[in-house]
Design a protein that fits this description.
Oligomer: single chain
Radius of gyration: 38 Å
Number of helices: 11
Number of domains: 3
Distance between the termini: 78 Å
CATH architecture of the largest domain: 2-Layer Sandwich
Strand content: 15-25%
Number of strands: 13
Strand order of the largest sheet: 2-1-3-4-5
Amino acid sequence: MTRVLIVDDIASNLYLLESLLKGNGFAVTSAKNGAEALAEAKKSPPDLVIADILMPVMDGFELCRQWKMDELLRNIPFIFYTATYTDARDEQFARSLGAERFIIKPQKPDVLVKEIREVLKESQKRTVAEPAHLPKNDRKILKEYNEVLFRKLEKKVMQLEAEIAERKAAQQQRESVIKELEQKNAELARFTYTVSHELRTPLITIQGFSGLIEEEVSKVEKNPELTKYVERISGAVDTMDNLFADLLRLSRAGQVISPPLKTSFGSIARESVDLLAQPLENNGVRVEIAPTLPFVIVDHNRIREVLVSLIENAIKFRGDQSYPVIRIGVDMTGETPVFFVQDNGIGIKPQYLERIFNLFERLNGNVSGTGIGLAIAKRIIEVHGGRIWAESEGPGKGTTIRFTLPVSEGHTDNNNNA
């Protein structure tokens, strides 16, 4: 069986070539560079060598030069199989070193096998007295070798320069798009703030006059229909006022009011619970805060706003749970700590888990709210470099809101007031 030595520093190239050769009845030995191939060949000379050119330790050109200078190996045919040296002058230099073939990758399998068989036939025709071509002038060889390397280096430098220029252009375009988006976001925030702020003024007027009408109606003969209309006006005004208040919060959600500082997450959690002490008590909701929580590097007030919103949501969607419980904690099992606010309320269907963070998304129209709270929480978490998502096993199974924040390593807060 014909033995072929293949030389390439890329494992995938070796595997493909070895599979092709073995599939066509050749025995194959492999090496990862010229020095390794030379040592292997001297121990057990092959019938043919196929070598790449660009390799560490010893490249293909030097391997070919030493191969053809070796008394034991010089008559064994040498094939270059390269994807990096493709210039006609590279082939000319390879031929001057004594190589029988110079084949450029990739090559069709049947064409490559045909070339290999032809080289083997040519080798068999040669007699022992007719050695393969030997390079004579070492100085000339060295000069040509340097020219080949210089051309390759020059080509590589040009490619790198073109790539750098392309990346710079892409980076400039990216920066331009980011700047444009930032300007549009700022304009949108200003627009939202202005609209929300200005529209609240006439609302206050409407609210004031509806109150006066209600007072006047109470002084005269009772008119249930008129009283109902006035109540509807007042209710609509309150709803609009809450909506505009939330829009104002949303316009500020993408901003960090205070510089991020190392803060106890446990303290933020306790403050949030204290702010909602009355609604928690009124609805019989118990809150459990994990005994040990890490320190975070955040805008304290902004993250407290997030927790208040998540706790309020858990209160709203407690359902008919007999013993509603909200748990605040952190999962430290992964590479990044993941904070959570978990309840045992009505739960969420899997298809709605991502939608709940959309603006004005309300899955339950019977529960009060504008549908902006979770969108605000998402923006605040993201402006801190974190992400937020929801988990639920379905209706009646409760909901867990998880989020990440920058953590101060090596510091935890031991919360004794859980």
